[in-house]
Amino acid sequence: MAKRAGIVGSTGRVGTLLIDALLKDDALPLGAVHVYDELKRSLPETVTITDDMQQLLEASDVVIDFSAPAATEALLEAALKNPTPLVIATTGLNAHQQNLLQSAAEEMPVLYATNMSAGIALLKQLVEQVARTLKDFDIEIVEMHHRHKVDAPSGTALTLAEHAAKGRGLDLDKVRISGRDGQIGARTKDEIAVMALRGGDIVGRHTVGFYNDGEFIELSHTATSRETFSNGAIRAAKWLVEQEKPGLYTINDCLGI
């Protein structure tokens, strides 16, 4: 019998794409959707529609979460009582929610990624490698998203910054800045800037620049469709549901890179 997928964040942009894709997927059919307000579409009778996380988990073999931090927190708390593989793509988690994520990963397979695209998975590795190799280059990160995005900088930009800091052996919390204004003085050697731009309907663009006297390198990734994220999450869910051991997995684990 095919495994069933549940969705948290079913009324969002990516959630809508997930529903469309899973309704056509025989290998991982849609089993349940979690709805806080109203689902403005009809679904087959075989799909459970609920505002109760426990009921969602009972109707799912793996859950894909593209929601908001509060909903992810509720999902994690419910999953600790009913362990179920979780693919979580929600960004902006606070310290308590991150601790819940770690606790859940001790009881079940959890794949957490701030970006579900294969390109970003590879970019993270490249950023760390370049940061380690080009030690004298200044690191600046710029991310661009649509006007409706509520968190800044993006989770993906922060993840890229973490890999840059790791390549340099730095603590990101001590070297990250996310704004410059006024007479701030010269740029310090170790600082890693993460800047956010918002406007229009930009799906997502991230550029990591390495700048030195006389030359610079920029590594960029652009998402042109949200299907990049929904398809990546489904790929991750199909992989994760086959993992027998609890643990905190990444997209890189899923892709084998």
The biggest sheet, with number of strands, parallel, antiparallel or mixed sense and barrel status, is: 7 strands, parallel
CATH top level assignment of the largest domain:
Alpha Beta
Helix content: 25-40%
Indicate the radius of gyration in whole angstroms: 19 Å
* Cα distance spanning the termini: 30 Å
The SS-based structural class is alpha/beta
N-to-C SSE string, H for helix and E for strand: EHEEHEHEHEHEHHEEEEHEH
Strand content: 15-25%
Number of E-state strands: 12
Helix segment count? 9
- Give me the CATH fold name of the largest domain: Rossmann fold
User: How are the strands ordered across the major sheet?
Assistant: 3-2-1-4-5-6-12
How would you describe the shape? elongated
Q: What is the correct CATH architecture of the largest domain?
A: 3-Layer(aba) Sandwich
Please give the domain count: 2
**Stretches where pLDDT falls below 50 for ≥5 residues?**
none
User: Average pLDDT value?
Assistant: 96
CATH superfamily of the largest domain: NAD(P)-binding Rossmann-like Domain
Key terms:
single chain, 257 residues, alpha/beta, Rossmann fold, Dihydrodipicolinate Reductase, domain 2, 2 domains, seven-stranded parallel sheet, five-stranded mixed sheet, 9 helices, 12 strands, elongated
